[in-house]
Write a structure and sequence with these properties.
The complex is a heterodimer of chains A (156) and B (732).
Chain A lengths: L5 H10 L6 E10 L8 E7 L5 E8 L10 H7 L3 H4 L3 E2 L7 E9 L8 E8 L3 E10 L15 E7 L1
Parallel strand pairs in A: 3-4
Antiparallel strand pairs in A: 1-5, 1-8, 2-3, 2-6, 6-7
Chain B lengths: L1 H33 L9 H11 L3 E6 L5 E7 L2 E7 L6 E4 L4 H12 L3 H30 L13 H31 L28 H4 L6 E5 L10 E5 L2 E5 L6 E6 L2 H14 L4 H11 L1 H17 L15 E6 L4 H14 L5 E5 L13 E7 L13 H7 L8 E7 L8 H12 L4 E9 L3 H14 L17 E11 L7 E7 L5 H6 L11 E4 L8 E4 L8 E7 L5 H7 L6 E7 L13 E6 L3 H9 L7 E7 L9 H10 L4 E6 L8 H7 L1 H9 L3 E6 L1 H15 L6 H6 L3 E5 L1
Parallel strand pairs in B: 9-10, 9-11, 11-12, 12-13, 20-21, 20-23, 21-22, 23-24
Antiparallel strand pairs in B: 1-2, 1-5, 2-3, 3-4, 5-6, 6-7, 7-8, 14-15, 14-19, 15-18, 16-17, 16-19
Helix pairs in contact in B: 1-3, 1-4, 1-8, 1-9, 3-4, 4-5, 5-7, 5-8, 5-9, 7-8, 18-20
The chains are: A mainly beta (156), B alpha/beta (732).
């Protein structure tokens, strides 16, 4: 497993001048009733073999615990320039998080995945709890997680 | 400065700290209940292999700081968590997350207020540290230096309780709050707390995975050091075991068992481990409970601390408003609490009642230049701790020393203190010496009031009146009667009714007490035999005092009264019938308390003086050797406490009772009986006995002479006993 940056650089280069070539994606994540503290979630895009490409969203304001979002943290180091404000509050047991943001067209239907690392204090850290191909065919399809996330779907 | 800091930090933090400490105590119990104390634990390889049998598809094994091992598998059915036996890897049942523990933990660290709450708790914890440090230095001052910090503290009341608890609990409080602050700062990111994170391996072996118990990288990790193991995820390539141990973290190849990457635990992470252990007791559950119990003292310390403060702030109410320029008499008060102000008010009122204008203020406010009309300056100086100046008198000596010429106004000094502390009235002495050096001598000499003793206060009043040629009322009579209580007579025994001077034992029900009185241990909440009951008879203005023959624990108020022919108070008391009530209050008479040591007691009394001594015997539940010499007129009148003495002798409270009857076939006074028992008394005195005498003044003098005679062969005398605090007299 190897994390590489070139594609990120390429995608940024694409994004900035041609913001119009981006799709509005809404992501809905429903947490299971695991009955613990609020969950921390990190959403990010990887290539097919799991190499980190780009940050999408981190749900948790407290940087102290970010290292529990194992794969995402290894790639980003929690760097604020990487996260660029794309963050929000943690998500309680049984609650649903809805986010809506732009993802470059270049990443859609091109073999990239959207992944979610999750963590709950005193319970579990689950790297890549969700790993779904970023394909239009998967849009609107609900997948279940492996423990903390009850269901995950994206739409565009 | 320390006192101001201690007070305000304390009041602000009291409520929050009460919540934090109570929840902290409760949380400290969880590790004790949940800790896994298995000593022979499987190594990491064997554990993984065993857990894979127990829970197929296991993804993560973690060991919490209480040593509890849990295994998690993620899958289509969601998250499955089981508790694992560290010795065998078999399941001990599903994980039950304690919602209760989480609830308390949330309340404890953030009051359910998230970040704002966490900050509040953090600030309160810092306040707690300041409180402990300022409190310790106050305690050292009060007890006469750091070396005395753990000497025995007498006294009751909220201040003494505060001190008694704090000087034991401070260690735990400091540890818990310092570590708590550390953890709080780490949460805020002000102290680094990095978990060891090894870099992800770039390449893993393509060979077939071996069973975990054949991987050297895993089997070399002993069971005690495992913190977590994340297994390689099936269906994904390039995966490895990620392990975290006490030493650090790394990745281990699932085919070769090789350590692929490794990072040591950093200094900050190790420091946090220790801090976390001390704070939570997770990993040291017994230590945790000890610290938890110590933190329970915080609510009590908050309560008693606030009571002490409230008592002090009541002090300066109701003073005359005369300006210093107009005043005939200036009264300067140096006092920590309210009591000395009470005496100052009484003294002011005595002067006001003869038409004097009086200005009362703190010693620090002294301003001789403004005392244009003053004919007298009176200093009421209490002593704090080991001879220190009270807070409101700390600048007094400096201000006077700075004067070029001492004030021409005559000076009077009255010291207040407690002779059970070292350096009794030392601050008053210091003020007097400084004044003398300035040629400003107190005109009546230095008078000292021990434990609010009224007699010495009256004596000062008389000396002052003589020196200033004033016809003053006894200032002790003008002390605000400390809110009298109604006492109902429940039992009355009369002895020698036909004789000229009958004796009555009067037992009153203990009055109902308010919560504040009970908390402050004031008045009828806290009295002992030998303390004084004050009763203002009808037709009189000043109270008459009687020695108490019971203690608050007995649940009744008892006095022994001799009916004096024509005596206003004793006649009214002796005429009371069961069900009648009187208005009365108590004051402490510390000079006439039974010693707290195990030394033998010699109790000598005559007539009504037997009351206080009987009270001392009744309270002698620790069965110290106690010998009573009791003088009465004749047996035919009946002997007060006759049956009680028999009962107390049977219980071991009383060692011997020697009766001296002055009108019998073999007439003798109590001092004659003492001479007859001289050998026994000498033996007792040599063994450290304390002597307590209660009765008429003449009897007191007779007993003193007799005892001097008895002690002469030992090269001892009563004065020497008095110096050692072994001779207490209460005569009337």
């Amino acid at each position: 497993m190897k994390f590489i940056k070139p594609i990120l650089a390429a995608s940024t280069a694409l994004t900035v001048p041609m913001a119009a070539e981006a799709a509005q994606v809404s992501i809905e994540t429903k947490m299971a009733n695991y009955g613990g503290e609020d969950a921390y979630l990190a959403f990010y895009i990887t290539d097919a073999s799991g190499n980190y490409v780009r940050h999408v969203w981190v749900a948790s304001g407290k940087t102290r615990w970010w290292d529990h979002l194992r794969n995402w943290y290894s790639a980003t180091g929690g760097s604020s320039s990487e996260i660029a404000g794309l963050s929000g509050a943690s998500v309680g047991s049984g609650r649903t998080l809805k986010i809506s943001l732009e993802i470059e067209d270049a990443l859609v239907n091109a073999g990239y995945q959207i992944r979610v690392d999750s963590a709950v204090e005193h319970m579990a850290d689950i790297p890549a709890e969700i790993a779904v191909d970023l394909d239009t065919t998967n849009a609107g399809q609900s997948v279940s997680g492996r423990g903390l996330i009850a269901s995950f779907s994206f739409d565009m | 400065m320390f006192r101001v800091l201690h007070r305000w930090a304390g009041i602000l933090a009291a409520l929050i700290l009460t919540i934090v400490s109570l929840t902290g105590f409760i949380l400290s119990l969880f590790p004790l209940l949940t800790t896994d104390r298995t000593s022979t634990r499987l190594d990491a390889g064997a554990l993984v292999a065993a857990v894979q049998d127990t829970l197929p598809g296991v993804q993560q094994i973690s060991v919490d700081l209480n040593g509890v091992v849990t295994a998690m598998s993620f899958g289509d059915s969601g998250l499955t968590q089981v508790v694992i036996d560290p010795a065998s890897g078999v399941s001990l049942g599903p994980v039950t997350t304690s919602a209760l523990e989480l609830w308390f933990e949330n309340l404890h660290r953030s009051l359910f207020l998230s970040d704002a709450g966490q900050m509040t708790v953090l600030i309160a914890s810092v306040a707690m540290i300041l409180l402990t440090l300022s409190g310790l230095s106050l305690a050292a001052r009060r007890l006469g230096g750091w070396k005395n910090l753990f000497i025995r503290e007498r006294g009751n009341g909220p201040d003494a309780l505060h001190l008694k608890i704090a000087r034991i609990a401070w260690v735990g409080i400091v540890i818990s709050s310092l570590t708590g602050v550390w953890m709080g700062l780490a949460t805020l990111g002000w102290i680094p707390d990095p978990n060891p994170l090894a870099s992800l391996p770039t390449e893993t072996s393509a060979a077939v995975h071996l069973p975990a118990d054949q991987l050297s990288g895993l089997t070399s990790i002993v069971g005690d050091e495992i913190r977590s193991i994340t297994l390689p995820r099936e269906g994904m390539s390039g995966q490895a075991y990620e392990i975290e141990t006490d030493a650090g973290s790394g990745f281990i190849d699932p085919a070769t068992g090789e350590v692929l990457t490794w990072v040591d635990r950093s200094f900050w992470s190790r420091a946090m481990d220790i801090v976390h252990l001390l704070h939570t007791g997770q990993g040291a559950s017994f230590l945790g409970v000890i610290l938890g119990v110590m933190s329970l003292s915080i609510p009590v310390l908050s309560g008693t601390g606030i009571l002490v403060w409230l008592r002090g702030s009541e002090a300066s109410k109701g003073l005359p408003k005369t300006k210093p320029e107009q005043a005939d008499v200036i009264i300067l008060v140096g006092s920590e609490g309210g009591t000395t102000w009470r005496f100052a008010r009484a003294f002011a009122n005595t002067l006001i009642s003869v038409g004097k204008k009086v200005h009362v203020t703190s010693m620090n406010s002294v301003a001789p230049a403004r005392y244009k009309n003053a004919a007298s300056i009176v200093v009421f100086a209490a002593t704090y701790g080991d001879g220190d100046a009270p807070e409101n008198a700390s600048e007094f000596i400096g201000k006077i020393e700075k004067l070029q010429v001492a004030p021409q106004t005559p000076l009077s000094i009255l010291g207040f203190g407690d002779s059970s502390y070292p350096n009794f009235c030392a601050f008053a002495d210091e003020v007097a010496n400084m004044a003398k050096a300035k040629g400003w001598e107190p005109i009546e000499g230095l008078h000292k009031v021990d434990c609010q003793d009224l007699k010495t206060f009256s004596e000062f009043g008389m000396a002052y009146a003589t020196a200033h040629e004033l016809a003053l009322e006894d200032p002790a009579a003008l002390l605000e009667t400390q809110s009298t209580k109604s006492l109902y007579l429940v039992e009355k025994q009369l002895f020698g009714e036909d004789a000229q001077a009958p004796i009555a034992i009067l037992r009153f029900a203990r009055p109902k007490l308010s919560l504040v009185e009970r908390l402050m241990r004031r008045g009828f909440a806290n009295y002992q035999a030998g303390d004084l009951l004050h009763f203002v008879p009808e037709g009189a203005t000043s109270p008459r005092s009687y020695s108490l023959a019971s203690q608050s624990k007995d649940g009744f108020v008892e006095i022994c009264v001799r009916k004096v022919h024509g005596g206003l108070s004793s006649t009214q008391l002796c005429n009371l019938e069961v069900g009648d009530k009187i208005e009365a209050y108590t004051t402490i008479n510390a000079n006439f308390h039974a010693p707290q040591s195990k030394s033998p007691l010699i109790l000598i009394g005559a007539g009504a003086g037997i009351g206080a001594l009987a009270g001392v015997i009744r309270a002698n539940t620790s069965k110290n050797e106690a010998h009573v010499f009791f003088g009465m007129r004749s047996r035919s009148d009946g002997i007060p406490y006759k049956q009680d003495f028999t009962e107390w002798e049977n219980k071991g409270f009383l060692s011997s009772l020697t009766l001296a009857l002055s009108r019998s076939q073999k007439p003798r006074y109590v001092q004659n009986a003492m001479i007859e028992e001289a050998d026994k008394l000498r033996d007792l005195i040599e063994r450290g006995a304390h002597v307590m005498i209660c009765g008429s003044r003449e009897m007191g003098e007779g007993v003193r002479a007799a005892l001097d005679q008895i002690l002469a062969p030992l090269q001892l005398n009563v004065s020497l006993l008095e110096k050692e605090g072994r001779y207490a007299v209460d005569v009337f």
